[in-house]
User: Fold this.
Amino acid sequence: MSSVPRTLDDGVSRCGPGGRLWHAASVTPTLARRRFFALAPLALVAACSPRPPADPAPGAPAAPATPAPTPPVTTVPVAADLAAPGRTPVAWGTHLPGIRDVVDGGVALTFDACGGPSGSGVDHALLDLLRAEAIPATLFLNERWVRAHEQLTAELAADPLFQIENHGSRHLPLSVDGRAAYGIAGTTSYADARAEIESNQRTLTDVAGRTPRWFRAGTAHYDDVAVDLLTDLGLGVAGFAVNGDAGATANPAAVEHALAGARDGAIVLAHMNQPHGGTASGLARALPALRAAGTTFRLLGEP
Assistant:
């Protein structure tokens, strides 16, 4: 796959680490008229929090809250060869060199399953829609979610419509010095960052029967040393060009509007672990216009 620029030139101030703003006026253009949807504080972590149903039908009974059990994440021993390489990070964020947020043609829908006590739900309506419309999608699964849904993980991995990839073990920002995003402390060292990656690599290889080729960190934040670590491990680093559901907090109309901005080549980030969110309904509403515009959907494929 050819190298593709990863940054934008739209002069938009965006939320960066901890919700602070940074300006994108000096970065390189990529897709013509490409639209980037800025991260609101807590948006990417909100997918791990419960929320009420989106647009409930009048008189419909409320769905009971039934969070899935979340067994402990596998502990990874820290061996001597995992000692920190001594580099000090000099960059931090969601759009750094080495992070892919576009692909070579088509729109790549990606859906995160964050795991944890409030993030291990399953959006069956979304999965049913993808299958009914024959839309390929790449699913980034956290280890806690996988442990709560091992049979479903295996079933999804066996479906050629889906590509299963690594969303970390504890859903942490990937850092070598504990840097936080949205109040969530990142991995604390080179060894800790490697453990966050490799524990779920082993779990997904065992449960899904295939070793992941891509990684997306919890909160989608990285420092430059962590990005290089992923590259050294042979993994693609999945970013995003379109924030499709604001951490599964967006209502259907907002999801539809976000997806309407997905230009050819965009990687779209959304969520599949909050069944009461607006993601499935918003995608259903967006599809007619996307199809009419000739949009094609694709898997991420190889890094």
